[in-house]
Amino acid sequence: MSISSTALLIVDMQKGMQNPAVGKRNNPTAEANVGRLLGRWRDAGAPVVHIRHISRSARSAFAPGQVGVEFQEALMPLAHEHVVEKNVPDAFIHSSLEKWLRIRSITEVVIVGVSTNISVESSARSAGNLGFGTSVVSDATYTFDKIDYDGQLHAASVVHAMALANLDGEFARIISTEQLLDEMQRFT
């Protein structure tokens, strides 16, 4: 992995995701792991993309003007870091993300953020289908409890594991923060 041709995509790390009303979640250290990776990318001067969900519904916590739409303080973009706004889960749909990556000769992406089974999974599927070498960091992503069509509640850890299983090998490789940092140490 060449860090100069690998972008860190930070998906939906917004204040609204910290609201307890969103539900029970897994990976309580995900933000710290995202922060560690963000620090490593910044130290290397490598490309970072902050992706923010902007809802089309005025009642959403992610609607323009709502506190929930703001980036979490610890993961705030720097002035020179690219910000992509999206209205659907997939960061590549109706955005300039693919063009931005290709213009910069970026061939690989590392995806972190929330939620594993929605925005992370859909963005990773597109990245893989578009030919980017795609990695999803298992402990720098998280999701929430989910009720299925039969009315059965599934713990966030189970929903998270299934989303990663859906991606693994087909669209992306799944890696931990420690594994990725070790790999970067060897190749940079």
Automatic annotation (TrEMBL):
Chain coiled-coil ranges: none
Keyword Flavoprotein among record annotations: no
Single GO MF descriptor: hydrolase activity
UniProt domain Isochorismatase-like: residue ranges: 6-179
Species the sequence originates in: Sapientia aquatica
Pfam families to which the protein is assigned, alphabetical: Isochorismatase (PF00857)
Protein name: Cysteine hydrolase
Transmembrane segments: none
CDD domains given in the database record: nicotinamidase_related
Keywords: Hydrolase
PANTHER family recorded: ISOCHORISMATASE HYDROLASE, PEROXYUREIDOACRYLATE/UREIDOACRYLATE AMIDOHYDROLASE-RELATED
Gene3D superfamilies linked: Isochorismatase-like
